[in-house]
What does this fold into?
Amino acid sequence: MESIRSTALEPTPRELAELSGVRRILRVLPVYGLPLLTLALIVLFCILLPRTFPTLLNLRSILGDKSIICVLALAAMVPMMAGRIDLTVGYGIVMWHILAISLQTQLGFGWLAAVFIVLALGALLGLINGVLVEIAQIDSFIATLGTGTVLYALALWHTGGRQIFGTLPAEFTNLYAANLFGLPIAAFYVLGISILLWIVADYLPIGRMLYAIGANQRAASLNGIRTRRFVIGAFVTSGLLGAFAGIVLAAKLRIGQASVGLEFLLPALVGAFLGSTTIKPGRVNVWGTVIGVAILAVGISGIQQFGGAFFVEPLFNGTTLLVAIGIAGYSQRRRSVSRRRPSGASN
It folds into this structure.
């Protein structure tokens, strides 16, 4: 968990003013290195694949396909702000997309009612996770792995191993199929959620309190922060966002099946961990998470257009996760060393 502790490593203006030109660039590079790498990959693939990569069709494909992963990554990011991890973002989407379809096709609910029921159940799952972690004092990794596995088992029981399908109203399928300004509407969901979480995380007291809990929960508690309430709230938010991602996935697939969904867990976690290595290195953050998912989307899209085999995507995701955790862990150790160093010491 040290790799997601909420201690930012971005340079201060005073620190930058004391550095020379080259050292200043090297100090700033970790902050903007990942966005620059993303731009470099885009330019590279545009040059190497001029007929397929720099096209509106490819842009729509990337935005549509990766928007759900980005929502899940943002969902995973919220508990990470408080130094917790939520694995149910990957397991839950299996149940939520199945339930969103079966409520309409098998149980006769309207699409709005189905959406509200799934969102409510997602929030309830987050509440259960928060209670297990904060009141039952179970490690967040173990607790969410357990609840996620139970939820996956319920999805298998509900479907009986078969596909759930039927006629869905256009209003529901348009939650994914609609376009806005020529781009998939799912991309605007990501934009709206990102802006909202950014405001909360960077400009509202609740965000500062979550980061304080992630940095040192005991110190935060001694300073009067109701840590239990905020951590449970973070899990509820994560569950709500995970349920929303399941609804969008249901509108995309229009068929519910338990074999779909778990493949979103790894890239969502990769995006969240990568987010702690950029913009605010050492601290998970909204725009870093979005960029983390973006570099995965660009890299995988380019590799696949080069004719990459079917195993390239999980290989790329797994390798990137290890690199991201390694970088985050190194950044955290570097921060710890700099804190212990006397103020008059020099590098």
User: Anything to note?
Assistant: The longest helix spans residues 312-340. The beta strands are 179-180, 183-184.
